[in-house]
Predict the structure.
Amino acid sequence: MSLSTPAAEPRRAVIGIGRVAMWKGGSVWVGRDTGQARAHSHHAIQITLAAAQPFRIRGAAAEAWHQTSAAIVMPDRPHLFDGCGHTVALVFVEPETLAGRELVVRHRQHDVDLLGDEGLAARTAALLSVFETRGTDAALVQAAQRIVEHLSAHPAGPQAVDPRIARVLDRIREHPDAELPLAQAAAIAHLSPSRFRHLFVAQTGISFRAYLLWARVGLAVARGMAGGSWTDAAQQAGFADSAHLSRTCRRMFGIAPTMLARGRGLKRLQTAGQGLR
């Protein structure tokens, strides 16, 4: 359902997140009391899901919000999201995977597309049940992957890019915190640096450096949500400092890392000015 833009945006300025779990080629973020994120874009496809109560979402260029319980956002498309204080799951799928490529083919006509699939509600309920009952990360990932596979008719993990680029992506995903200069990445792909740079963009749609940042911000969020300090998480993920992580996270997710809270008792910060700058 499409709604007119309200006269004033909701007062919630942050998002609370309960848990983050990752797999090669994707991740799942689930939390209560989810609030509003500013306009942002990221490299992964975003599948946004709720159970009993809807959220709001729209493309950054659109004037109307959609109120829905299931939507998909295409990669690198600016958008806004408001969880309306409800429990929401975000499933991220990298477009370099077979599942990601199929999702892009099916939904690329829209920045944000609503999902009305009849089989999705039960799978969403199963995912949120794992979160509510404090299931393992493996169970959370499995439930999220079932949603990806249901929507794409492809397994969630396998890649769909040139094998030479796939080797580099595997290296980044396995060691996103490790230094990997472009020349070294090109050597892994058995290409010259200039040829590698061109082929990487052609296969992924973004630059090698941009992909490294995407992988590292995901790692930093996962480590911060696991209980470490955000300063330590930034350093462990290869960021120059916590401010660099904060800028990157704001650009990709519309929030600062310190606006994320782990566990069942989510802490909601009151203003976007609080947190890393």
Summary: The chain is about 40% helix and 20% strand.
